[in-house]
Structure formats: structure tokens, C-alpha cells
Design goal:
6 helices, single chain
Length: 127
């Protein structure tokens, strides 16, 4: 395996691990890390790229993104609810000064903007 493929393979596994952690940790988004993992695998290992494409949990997300840049409505809603709940719990238990609070809210706003500006259905699907 070349150094470039090894680097992409390593990036893919690290990203996938961060994506899995993002399921459980607030402010760590799952979707972008899983998509980076898919990209890394596509450049380094067809076997693991196919595994991710067919994965029970992440497969549809990756296939939708690779085929048409889609984040399904149910994923958008789940992400939004999860972020709001986790932020609310965090802000309730941890009192932050104004600047960190603003930085967190700006970061979350950027993530939400990205999520909600992606199409919810592939272009070839009729409403």
C-alpha cells in the first residue's frame, strides 16, 4: 500500500471512529465524519468502501450523499433534536461565560445551516 493510500485509510478509520463517537457526544457531528470516512475508503480500499456503503447504520447515508448530496429529512430531524437536547442539557449543568457560549452556538448554527441546506430527496425521486 502506498503512503497516500495508507494515509487515506488511516484518515478513514479515524473519521469513522469520530463519527461513531458523535452518536453519543454533543457537538461532535456524526454525518461529516462518516462521509470523510467514505471518501478515505474510496481512495484507499474498495473492500472497506463497499463495507461502509452496505453498512446497516451508515450505508444509506453514504449512498445518498455519494449519489446526490442528500441528507434525508429523518436524519435532519434526528440531528436537530439531538443537538438541541444535548446542548440544553449541557448548558443547564455547565455555566459558561458569554464568549464560549457564543462560539458554541455559532458552531452549532453552522452545522445546522449545512444540514438544512442539503436536499432531502435525490433529484430523481418524485414528490
Amino acid at each position: 500500500m502506498s503512503m497516500k493510500k495508507l494515509a487515506m485509510f488511516s484518515l478513514a478509520w479515524i473519521s469513522l471512529a469520530l463519527g461513531v463517537l458523535g452518536i453519543f457526544l454533543p457537538l461532535l457531528p456524526t454525518t461529516p465524519f462518516v462521509l470523510v470516512a467514505a471518501y478515505g475508503f474510496s481512495k484507499s480500499s474498495d473492500r472497506f468502501h463497499q463495507w461502509l456503503l452496505n453498512h446497516r447504520i451508515f450505508g444509506r447515508l453514504v449512498r445518498d450523499w455519494e449519489s446526490s448530496g442528500v441528507i434525508r429529512l429523518n436524519a435532519k430531524i434526528l440531528a436537530t433534536v439531538s443537538i438541541v437536547v444535548m446542548l440544553s442539557i449541557s448548558f443547564y449543568f455547565i455555566q459558561l461565560s458569554l464568549m464560549p457560549t457564543i462560539m458554541i452556538l455559532l458552531s452549532v448554527s453552522c452545522v445546522m445551516l449545512f444540514i438544512w441546506t442539503r436536499p432531502s430527496l435525490p433529484a430523481d425521486v418524485k414528490h
